[in-house]
Write a structure and sequence with these properties.
Radius of gyration: 19 Å
Strand content: 25-35%
Distance between the termini: 57 Å
Number of strands: 13
Largest sheet: 8 strands, mixed
Length: 255
C-alpha cells in the first residue's frame, strides 16, 4: 500500500479545530518540525497536544502555542518555553502534567489497545489525590483542578489508575521510512516518536530518507507500517533543520 503524500500541507489538511495530536520528540530532538509548521498553516485552533514537552519559544510546538492555536497540553516537562508558562499562569491554557514514565506508558497502552493500567508512580501526591491546577482563572485562583484517581493495593504496595491515551492524529519524525509506512528512528531521536506513532488514529510520519519497500532490515524497523497512515518525504533542507536547544561549548585552547 502506497502511503506517500506529496506535501506536508496535504498530509495534515484534515486536522480540524479541536483535534487532539500526539507529537513525538524530546525538547527539539526528533520533532516533526515540518509537519508542525504545516499544521500551523491549516489555521486549526483549540488543539489538544500530547507530547513530552511543548517545544521552545519559536520552535517545535512553540509555533502553535505562540499563535494561540492550543487549548490543552498533556506533557511531562515544559520548562524551556516562556510563552507556555505565561499562557498557563494567565489562564489561557489548560495543562495536565504527568510523570514522564507514566506519559510514555499511557501512550504505549493506547497504541496497544489497553484502556488503563495501575502504576505506583504518583501515589501519595496530587497525581493520585487530585488538586493539581489544570487551568487558572484570571485572578490567579484555580479554575480547573485534576480529579482524584482510583488507587488499589497490589502485593502490599499502593498503585494509582492511569487511563491510556489515544489521539485523533499523531505527528512523528523518522530517519528512514518506506512507502508502506515502516519507520526507523536514529539514536536518541527515537524518544517519544514510536509511542506517539502507535497512539494516533491517523499517524503522519515525516522521513528524512525515503527508501523502497523491502530495503529496510525487518529486525531494524522500530514502527511497523500498520501504525502509519501517511508518509511525507522531507527535502534535504528540511531534513537538515535540526536546532540545538542548548548549545554548550568549551573555549578553544592552543595546541
Amino acid at each position: 500500500m502506497n502511503k506517500l503524500v506529496a506535501t506536508a500541507a496535504e498530509a495534515v489538511a484534515d486536522i480540524h479545530d479541536g483535534a487532539s495530536l500526539a507529537v513525538g520528540g524530546f525538547g527539539l530532538c526528533g520533532i516533526p518540525q515540518t509537519l508542525i509548521h504545516a499544521v500551523h498553516g491549516t489555521g486549526a485552533a483549540r488543539l489538544s497536544l500530547v507530547s513530552n514537552n511543548c517545544g521552545t519559544d519559536g520552535r517545535g510546538l512553540g509555533v502553535l502555542l505562540e499563535s494561540g492555536r492550543v487549548a490543552r497540553v498533556v506533557a511531562s516537562y515544559v520548562g524551556e518555553n516562556k510563552e507556555f508558562a505565561r499562557q498557563y499562569l494567565a489562564g489561557e491554557l489548560e495543562v495536565e502534567l504527568i510523570p514522564q514514565g507514566t506519559l510514555a506508558e499511557r501512550l504505549r497502552a493506547g497504541g496497544a489497545g489497553i484502556p488503563a493500567f495501575f502504576t505506583p508512580a504518583g501515589v501519595g501526591t496530587q497525581v493520585a489525590d487530585g488538586g493539581l491546577p489544570w487551568r487558572y482563572a484570571e485572578d490567579g485562583t484555580v479554575a480547573v483542578a485534576s480529579p482524584p484517581r482510583e488507587t488499589r493495593e497490589f502485593d502490599g504496595r499502593e498503585h494509582v489508575l492511569e487511563r491510556a491515551i489515544v489521539c485523533d492524529f499523531a505527528l512523528v519524525h523518522a530517519y528512514r521510512g518506506d512507502r508502506h509506512g515502516n519507520l526507523v528512528f536514529r539514536r536518541s531521536a527515537a524518544n517519544f516518536n514510536p509511542l506517539a506513532a502507535a497512539a494516533g488514529r491517523v499517524t503522519i510520519a515525516e522521513v528524512e530518507e525515503l527508501v523502497e519497500p523491502g530495503t529496510l532490515d525487518p529486525d531494524q524497523i522500530h514502527v511497523a507500517g500498520i501504525h502509519v497512515q501517511r508518509v511525507v518525504a522531507l527535502t534535504p533542507e528540511q531534513a537538515a533543520d535540526k536546532p540545538i536547544e542548548r548549545r554548550t561549548t568549551s573555549e578553544r585552547t592552543a595546541d
